[in-house]
Amino acid sequence: MKFEVTILGSASATPVYNRNPTAQLLNCNERHYLIDCGEGTQQQLIKYGFKASKIDYIFISHLHGDHFFGVVGLLSSLHLNGRTKPLQLFGPAALKEIIDLQFLHSDTHLRYEIDFHPIDASKSELIFKNNDVSVETIVLNHRIPCTGFKFTEKKRLRKLVVEKLEQDAVPITYYPMLKRSLNIDLPDGRHIEYLDYTTDSAVPKVYCYCSDTMYDESYFDQIRNADTLYHEATFLHEMLDRANETHHTTAQQAAEIATKVGAKKLLIGHFSSRYKTLEALLDEAKCGFENTQLALEGKTFEI
Ligand SMILES: [Zn+2]
Ligand SMILES: [Zn+2]
């Protein structure tokens, strides 16, 4: 099953040096989940060959413009392109007001429904699940209420050992029960243990998205052992005072967090416009956590 994330924006605050404000597209089993939607996200989707019409779920972390200024434009384009399928939108309650006001004054009546789910940023909760993935919020520490998102793949059914099943002439009609870890008593009197005819499926993978936040151990438990941790790293550590003041994280801190929570891979992003090139940020993070990569526009990472 595909479980990967493509970076559409890596900049904080303003678009600069060909870096776009934050947006990521998560592909889980060919379903598309948009995480944040900074200005220019539509163009980024086109640039990297994705169809906006395939997005059915949008998750917005907070109401700083670099994370949501692209939402109204995207929703409007979907309408103009004839979408009728409902779209699920998760974000701060006030996002609904903002969207409604914009469409009210432009006399726009969407031809599809927005199923809006307000997020309570004061506590972590399960906000979504389907057959592929579940999504929990991560309470972050930012200047305004802000949540990250933890995407956990759904555990797959057990795998059949077909050769053995055929050899012992177990009827195919019983295969679904075995996959669901059920033992069977066959009409001919034989007892079939599922453990003898199936193997465990892969351990579900976890993707944690943490932007924007300052270093705060209160959310560490929730992101523990993530297969891939995306963490903002707005500044170099020499700017720690500025990071604390603006409730952001330094590259060194992002690496420290990845180490402390036992992440397997770290992606850093949300880079300040003060950095024309990003090598120093990557080097600093790699010093503390070797398996770090820059979450750059157009790059796709397997979770
Ligand atoms: Zn931001
Ligand atoms: Zn912010």
Automatic annotation (TrEMBL):
Superkingdom classification of source: Bacteria
Residues at which Zn(2+) 2 binds: D66, H67, D212, H270
One GO MF term: 3'-tRNA processing endoribonuclease activity
Keyword entries, A-Z: Endonuclease, Hydrolase, Metal-binding, Nuclease, tRNA processing, Zinc
EC number(s) given by UniProt: 3.1.26.11
Presence of the UniProt keyword Isomerase in the record: no
Necessary cofactors: Zn(2+)
Described function: Zinc phosphodiesterase, which displays some tRNA 3'-processing endonuclease activity. Probably involved in tRNA maturation, by removing a 3'-trailer from precursor tRNA.
Name of the protein described by the UniProt record: Ribonuclease Z
Phylogenetic lineage: Bacteria, Pseudomonadati, Bacteroidota, Sphingobacteriia, Sphingobacteriales
Gene: rnz
